């Protein structure tokens, strides 16, 4: 570690953050940099304390040198300076001269006087008393102690007198009045139009407070400033609420006013935190905020609410007074009314309750924003509930201090209290007067909306002949993985019953009110909400159960899916309410929310849905006497089609899929469809395993099973979540089936394998089957049973040859086939699957985004079909891709791989070289990259401006010119003992040292700036550098990324307006000149030719820095460039994995990082809609289609609704004879050519019992079968081999085996049988 003695600013910290998942080298560099800076800071503090200790030890001759701890305590003391022996008369003359000057008519006299006093104190060591004023003592101390305290404070030295103290107090008073007027005038001017605060006013306000603290103690200054800010809050409230009264009355006026005023108050609190946190202790700052803002706001809110409550009492009881006109007879015929409570003298209307709820939402958001603001600016956790943390917003411990109407004086919180305060924002106490009315109104509103909605639903149900009116589910917020409050979009229903949506919308609107009323007198509001909504939830559940019982007698099956979706959504809202209300208070019984009841009902309706579908298939759809007459000597429809029951089974499942897709959550819809498929397939396996067809019906079994496998292959895209599940990579699923598991895709795979086994054994040519059996028997005798097992042929490989890995490898299209399969999985899903979408975008080196961009107007020649609107949508697609891939620091190559073709065609590489030039028209990708790079450079610029401004204050103090501005009769009265001769202005000779320090600071932190950039950006610049060979001379020493970074820094230093916006400080000409000099030094260090004649100062700066640190700039450039070199990315590639090999956990982590970015979910949804709109085009391209094609239409993603997801469109008239988007040709199914030589060897090691059972059902094995001579010989050999007992008992009766086949097949797959048939 090097100690830069001449460069103390090098070890200051920057607000640069390394991206979440970065390379190891980045973290190593960050940790080393942090460790070095901590050590350097500690060493610097130690050195400064030693110097201070030695100086103070020298000044106090004969005394013990103070310890470092004692030195630190001196910074808070005013009397640490040496007293100066001055005659009282000289001091009195000086004070009288100042009073005379302050009473004159000269402009700026107060400012000059203050500057004179500050200079005398700082440069001459004169200590002026700053005790509290008499008025402040009288207001803060008891009367009996005021006099004694006054004498104690004002007795400074023996040479002081009451006359001098009074004169000094008069001077202080005049100066205080000037400073207070400055602060008040500034605030009043800003309160006219209520604009955002300008940054120079912050420094001006801080300077005023600093001068006040020079004159008076900090406690009194804060009390004075507190009153100013309190008056600002009051005037702002009155102004805003008065302006919002136009067209609004009652609580609406308050709601609109407070929604407008909170933004102003947040800006004001932000300003005061900026001003106070660096000058005042934290507990005093928090006490100031309590008194000036939160106490004032609470007091005023309570007053306004009380006033509006009185108005509402008059208005609401005028209508209710008519109900008192009862006759004595009517009173006798009804039950006695509950005696009216004083607190319920009137009832709130639903509109008034809505306004109050909106107001509580506004105030809760204000509270949350203040918590985050204080936490971020004071580094105090104001959001947690830890008792050790001070600064959390909480209610006052003593409610007795609050008046009955909720008011509390804003000045009751003393700033000098010894108790360490916390932020106390007691706005809830202002609603105390309305608590009973709100609690009553919550019940009335929920009960009323429930009754009306249920009545409306009954009317609609009767008019629409049993159909349920549905409503789209509106998203509450963008879901982020890991959010404990919200359900994932894939677990959220799409459409629910309209009546339930109306009720839940009203409950959602009242939920913030229940959350806000979490303690004290407001607790009854939350309790009322829980109780009322619990009853409403039971009413909703009762109506849903009624509608479920109507199926199938008087309502269609699709209603059951709608009822299930509604029940699930209501359960999710109940769980959400429970999670938000849980922990707020233990007094509210959340068990009133019927969550468990809904869970049981959801399970029952699920069972009803799947059971009904299975029952329909078993008793209706799959029952076809003509198709099942296997012994019929005539062929079924001349052998030209499959069974009607098989076709209707697929037709029924397609309709079911459409109903499930339209309403249910995506994950549940896939699971239910898979369950119905699996359970009904089991019936079909039983049927064909038992079948003993005639010769003419053998072809029907082959055709039926072929059609079944084709249908299942089409439906499996909708059931599976990933390519691994679709291909059944883990084929050991028999255990799941036999133990009642719910892995439906694996069960379907196993059942289809059984169907393929039945097909092979039942319908394969007898000669080939005999040949295989003979070969197996001979091999068994020679080698034993253990050598017979062969690799299993999966049913999907036999039906769809594209799934054969061997064929894909032969064609060289394995990656394209995988992308095509994943695309079909994505578009067949009922909703957007972000995890699968991200995997598709990364798969095969971002092959799919490359296809979209390659066939767009960006990369193709001009085409009339490529409109400006499509081009803008294409730019949005580029922005979405960029914002997704820039988050993937573990996969840095993805951004470049996806956009490389686009970058080449649009010649964007050259624009990266001139990234700092923002005036020209550039591709949209450059407009995305520029702010990412400039974010890091802006942090450097902000620090550099602060450094220059601090140096300017030290080098060129304003006090150097006071001699010619202050009146001569004041200057001549300055006591000679104070020695003011050294106040003459001196020429500043620190420009070059300051420039050297700033340049050293830049190159010290340059590696950290590179680390703060996302890895995809660094890799993109590394690839771009290789494309810019014509700039190799300029980039030889720095590289493209450092070239862009430093040029952005140079442009920023040359732009004063940008610097003022970034830093929030006003720059004068001297500060601008120093920053411009620093820009020239940076240019010279990079080897850039300066405009005009080079300045000698630039050469002097670089030469001096080189002398102090030889070759240090080159070393820092090499260190920074190493962080974005090829070796870094190669090492990251070796430690990571390819996109195709990413595990489920890694994909989830990457998805989490994308979704946590602002707009990440929206970008994924936008790309999903573009892929949907160009599905046919992408399938043709991935399928190997060649030739001219239309350009990609990016407008599909822009025109789709944000939350619209694709549903499986089902047309009953067209779907009956189609499979997917194509018409099913029955002749193609009948003429399907099976690869018997490839299929039969795979079954040579199957279970002998299973083989004999299926072999016995072949038509050739039946008695009376008409066979040719050669066929008879083959059959006899098979009989002797499998159906003749070795004990001589004769042949086995084939029908006996038929009894065992259904039981074995019903169990699906035997554990020892690799073929999948028991």
Task: Explain what the structure shows.
The protein has a two-stranded antiparallel sheet. The C terminus is likely disordered. The chain starts with 23 loop residues before the first helix and ends in a 12-residue tail after the last helix. With 1318 residues, it is an all-alpha fold. The protein is flat, with a radius of gyration of 42 Å. The longest helix is centred in the first third of the chain and has 39 residues. It has 52 helices and 4 strands.
Blueprint of the fold:
Elements: H1 24-59, H2 68-73, H3 88-102, H4 109-124, H5 134-140, H6 143-154, H7 162-190, H8 199-215, H9 218-243, H10 250-276, H11 282-320, H12 328-333, H13 350-378, H14 435-463, E1 470-472, E2 495-497, H15 498-516, H16 523-549, H17 558-581, H18 595-621, H19 644-663, H20 666-690, H21 698-719, H22 723-726, H23 734-738, H24 744-763, H25 766-783, H26 795-799, H27 805-811, H28 814-828, H29 834-854, H30 868-885, H31 893-905, H32 909-913, H33 924-955, H34 968-971, H35 991-1012, H36 1015-1027, H37 1032-1035, H38 1039-1053, H39 1056-1063, H40 1069-1086, H41 1096-1108, H42 1112-1122, H43 1126-1135, H44 1144-1156, H45 1160-1173, H46 1175-1182, H47 1195-1199, E3 1218-1219, E4 1222-1223, H48 1226-1230, H49 1236-1239, H50 1248-1256, H51 1269-1282, H52 1294-1306
Antiparallel strand pairs: 1-2, 3-4
Helix pairs in contact: 1-35, 3-7, 7-8, 7-9, 8-10, 9-10, 9-11, 10-11, 10-13, 13-15, 14-15, 14-16, 15-16, 15-17, 16-17, 17-18, 17-19, 18-20, 19-20, 19-21, 20-21, 20-24, 20-52, 21-24, 25-51, 28-29, 28-46, 29-31, 30-31, 30-45, 31-36, 33-35, 33-38, 33-40, 35-40, 35-41, 35-42, 38-40, 40-41, 50-52
């Amino acid at each position: 570690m090097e100690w830069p003695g001449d460069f103390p600013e090098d070890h200051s910290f920057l607000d640069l953050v390394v991206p979440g998942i970065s390379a190891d080298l980045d973290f190593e560099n960050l940790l080393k940099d942090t460790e070095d800076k901590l050590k350097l800071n500690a060493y610097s503090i130690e050195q400064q304390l030693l110097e201070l200790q030695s100086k103070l030890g020298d000044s106090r001759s004969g005394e013990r040198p103070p310890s470092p701890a004692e030195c630190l305590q001196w910074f808070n003391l005013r009397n640490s300076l040496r007293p100066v022996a001055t005659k009282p008369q000289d001091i009195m003359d000086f004070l009288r001269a100042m009073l005379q000057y302050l009473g004159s008519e000269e402009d700026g006299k107060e400012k000059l006087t203050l500057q004179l006093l500050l200079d005398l104190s700082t440069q001459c060591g004169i200590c002026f008393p700053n005790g509290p004023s008499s008025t402040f003592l009288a207001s803060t101390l008891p009367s009996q102690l005021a006099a004694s305290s006054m004498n104690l404070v004002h007795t400074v030295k023996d040479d002081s007198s009451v006359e001098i103290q009074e004169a000094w107090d008069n001077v202080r008073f005049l100066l205080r009045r000037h400073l207070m007027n400055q602060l008040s005038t500034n605030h009043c001017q800003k309160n006219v139009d209520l604009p955002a605060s300008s940054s120079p006013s912050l420094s001006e306000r801080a300077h005023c407070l600093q001068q006040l603290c020079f004159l008076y103690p900090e406690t009194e200054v804060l009390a004075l400033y507190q009153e100013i800010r309190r008056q600002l809050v009051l005037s702002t409230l009155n102004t805003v609420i008065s302006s919002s009264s136009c067209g609004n009355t009652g609580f609406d006026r308050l709601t609109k006013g407070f929604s407008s005023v909170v933004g102003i108050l947040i800006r004001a609190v932000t300003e005061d935190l900026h001003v106070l946190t660096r000058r005042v202790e934290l507990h005093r700052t928090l006490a100031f905020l309590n008194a000036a803002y939160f106490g004032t706001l609470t007091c005023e809110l309570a007053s306004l609410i009380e006033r509006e409550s009185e108005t509402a009492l008059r208005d609401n009881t005028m209508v209710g007074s008519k109900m008192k006109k009862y006759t004595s007879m009517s009173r006798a015929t009804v039950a006695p009314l509950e005696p009216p409570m004083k607190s319920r003298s009137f009832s709130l209307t639903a509109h008034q309750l809505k306004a109050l709820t909106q107001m509580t939402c506004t105030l809760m958001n204000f509270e949350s924003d203040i918590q985050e603001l204080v936490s971020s600016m004071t580094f105090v956790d104001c959001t947690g509930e830890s008792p050790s943390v001070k600064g959390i917003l909480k209610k006052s411990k003593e409610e007795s201090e609050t008046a009955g109407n909720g008011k509390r004086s804003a000045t009751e919180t003393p700033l000098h209290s010894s108790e360490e305060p916390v932020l106390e924002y007691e706005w809830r106490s202002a609603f105390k007067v309305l608590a009973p009315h709100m609690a009553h109104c919550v019940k009335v509103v929920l009960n009323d909306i429930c009754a009306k909605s249920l009545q409306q639903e009954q009317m609609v149900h009767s008019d629409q002949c049993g159909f349920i009116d549905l409503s789209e589910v509106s998203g509450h917020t963008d879901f982020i993985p890991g959010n404990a409050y919200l359900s994932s979009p894939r677990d959220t229903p799409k459409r629910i019953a309209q009546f339930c949506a109306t009720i839940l919308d009203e409950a959602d609107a009242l939920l913030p009110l229940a959350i806000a009323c979490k303690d004290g007198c407001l607790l009854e509001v939350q309790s009322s909400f829980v109780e009322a909504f619990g009853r409403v939830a039971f009413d909703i559940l009762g109506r849903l159960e009624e509608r479920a019982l109507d199926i199938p007698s008087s309502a269609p099956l699709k209603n059951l899916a709608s009822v299930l979706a509604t029940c699930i959504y209501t359960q999710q809202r109940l769980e959400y309410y429970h999670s938000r209300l849980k922990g707020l208070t233990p007094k509210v019984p959340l068990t009133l929310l019927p969550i468990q009841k809904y869970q049981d009902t959801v399970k029952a309706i699920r069972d009803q849905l799947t059971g009904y579908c299975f029952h329909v298939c078993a008793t209706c759809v799959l029952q076809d006497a003509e198709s099942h007459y296997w012994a019929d000597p005539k062929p079924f429809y001349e052998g030209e089609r499959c069974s009607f029951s098989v076709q209707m089974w697929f037709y029924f499942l397609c309709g079911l899929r459409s109903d499930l897709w339209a309403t249910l959550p995506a994950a549940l819809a896939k699971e239910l469809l898979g369950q119905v498929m699996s359970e009904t397939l089991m019936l079909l396996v039983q049927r064909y395993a038992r079948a003993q067809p005639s010769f003419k019906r053998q072809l029907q079994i082959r055709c039926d099973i072929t059609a079944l496998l084709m249908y299942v292959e089409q439906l499996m895209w909708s059931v599976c979540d990933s390519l691994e599940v679709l291909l059944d990579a883990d084929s050991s699923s028999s255990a799941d089936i036999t133990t009642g598991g719910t892995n439906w895709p694996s069960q379907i795979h196993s059942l289809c394998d059984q169907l393929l086994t039945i097909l092979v054994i039942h319908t394969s040519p007898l000669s080939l089957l005999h040949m295989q059996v003979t070969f197996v028997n001979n091999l068994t005798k020679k080698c034993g049973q253990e050598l017979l097992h062969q690799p299993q042929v999966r049913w999907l490989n036999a039906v769809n040859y594209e799934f054969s890995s061997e064929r894909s490898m032969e064609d060289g299209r394995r990656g394209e086939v995988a992308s095509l399969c994943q695309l079909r999985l994505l578009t067949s899903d009922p909703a957007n699957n972000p995890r699968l979408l991200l995997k598709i975008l990364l798969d095969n080196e971002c092959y799919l985004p490359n296809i979209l961009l390659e066939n767009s107007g960006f990369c193709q020649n001009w085409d009339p079909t490529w409109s400006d609107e499509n081009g803008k949508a294409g730019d949005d697609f580029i922005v979405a891709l960029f914002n997704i891939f820039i988050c993937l620091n573990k996969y840095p190559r993805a951004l470049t791989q996806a956009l490389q073709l686009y970058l080449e065609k649009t010649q964007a590489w050259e624009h990266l070289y001139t990234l700092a030039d923002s005036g020209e028209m550039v591709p949209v990708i450059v407009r995305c990259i520029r702010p990412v790079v400039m974010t890091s450079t802006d942090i450097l610029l902000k620090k550099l401006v602060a450094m220059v401004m601090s140096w300017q204050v030290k080098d060129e103090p304003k006090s150097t010119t006071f001699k010619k501005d202050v009146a001569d009769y004041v200057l001549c009265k300055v006591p000679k003992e104070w020695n003011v001769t050294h106040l003459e202005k001196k020429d500043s000779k620190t420009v070059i040292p300051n420039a050297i320090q700033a340049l050293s600071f830049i190159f010290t932190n340059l590696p950290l700036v590179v680390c703060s950039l996302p890895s995809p950006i660094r890799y993109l610049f590394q690839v771009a550098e290789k494309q810019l060979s014509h700039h190799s001379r300029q980039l030889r020493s720095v590289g493209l990324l450092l070239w862009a970074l430093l040029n952005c820094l140079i442009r920023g230093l040359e732009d004063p307006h940008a610097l003022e916006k970034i830093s929030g400080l006003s720059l004068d000409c001297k500060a601008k000149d120093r920053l411009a000099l620093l820009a020239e030094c940076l240019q010279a260090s990079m080897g850039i030719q300066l405009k005009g004649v080079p300045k000698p100062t630039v050469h002097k700066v670089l030469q001096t820095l080189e002398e102090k640190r030889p070759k240090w700039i080159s070393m820092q450039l090499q260190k920074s460039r190493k962080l974005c070199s090829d070796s870094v990315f190669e090492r990251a590639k070796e430690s990571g994995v390819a996109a195709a090999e990413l595990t489920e956990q890694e994909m989830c982590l990457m998805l989490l990082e994308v979704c946590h970015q602002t707009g990440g979910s929206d970008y994924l949804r936008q790309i999903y809609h573009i892929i949907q709109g160009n599905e046919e085009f992408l399938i043709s391209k991935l399928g190997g289609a060649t030739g001219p094609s239309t350009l990609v239409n990016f407008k599909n993603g822009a025109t789709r609704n944000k939350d619209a997801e694709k549903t499986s469109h089902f047309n009953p008239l067209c779907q009956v004879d189609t499979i997917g988007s194509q018409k099913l040709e029955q002749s193609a199914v009948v003429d399907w050519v099976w690869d018997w030589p490839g299929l039969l060897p795979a079954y040579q090691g199957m279970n002998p019992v299973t083989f004999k059972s299926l072999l016995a059902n072949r038509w050739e094995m039946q008695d009376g079968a008409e066979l040719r001579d050669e066929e008879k010989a083959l059959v006899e050999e098979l009989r002797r081999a499998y159906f003749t007992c070795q004990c001589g008992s004769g042949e086995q009766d084939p029908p006996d085996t038929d009894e065992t086949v259904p039981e074995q097949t019903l169990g699906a797959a035997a554990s020892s049988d690799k073929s999948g048939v028991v």
